[in-house]
Here is the input.
Amino acid sequence: MTVKQVTERNDSLETRIIKTLTLMDQDLPTIPVVLSQIMHMTASTESSVTDLIKVLDQDQALTARILRVANSAYYGLREKATTIERAVVILGFDMVRSLAVGASFIHYFSPKNQYENFDLNAFWAHTTAVGVFAETIAQELRLTDSADAFTAGILHDIGKLVMLIYFEKEFSQVLVRVAEDRLDFSEAEMVELGLSHATVAGILLRHWHIPEVLVWAIEHHHEPLKAEKDCSLAVCINLADFAARYIQIGSSGSPYLQPPSIELLKTTNLTGGGFKNILKRLTRKKEDVFKLISALD
Ligand SMILES: [Fe+2]
Here is the structure.
């Protein structure tokens, strides 16, 4: 049975998405082994440089891409990193792991088609900015592991890609609702479809056996306070998502944004003024983020 046949049935949208993703081995790209291994390392404290090098040895093209990004203007290295070992010495292990996830994810999961109503370049610019800002916010507020924050930031809107590629009609309906009712994307999804891209991302990432800490945060990135357990990574993504849109880097599908609630800021011991200061500092990083976006392209 093909995905098309499944999605043409009269099941609920959530059931159709689950069935689509369950059949993904034949119709959707599976997560590359190398990327999966690196992502598991990101969530593990026991991985070593040797493990990372061993994994990257399986994919020379990815290694070359990582080195290209490491040597890009974003990192501004005085000395060229010619090997992964050297990159780890200069940039640090966590940064090279994050970079490997960013470089491979965008490369593998960029749809080949162009979509009339949705600008994919702006989408990747948005997710890259969220990755960088989430990493910075995690460090500044000592909220959570900053490498996990970068990875979760890059992946946070992957549910939109699934909807765009496999449920194009429903995705377009959401875009119309966004424009007509001036809604945030996830609010428009709830009105139009009754589920959001965050839920879709959760289904996909669990299917891929991505570490639960990342899945949990991505699933709750629009409503971190509704999470029943520690939500600091989800809060981090939520704040970074707002920052990327406020600072206007790329686009995530809706220009209508609501600032984070005081209640949400309180979970990080931030006041409104404190968050404004963070936004000012992140705004100064705008040019750097563009350098990373063009290096990852
Ligand atoms: Fe989102």
About this structure: Confidence is low (pLDDT under 50) at residues 1-7. The chain has 19 helices and no strands. Residues 156-157, 197, 221-222 surround fe (ii) ion (CB under 6 Å). The CA atoms of residues 154 and 184 lie 19 Å apart.
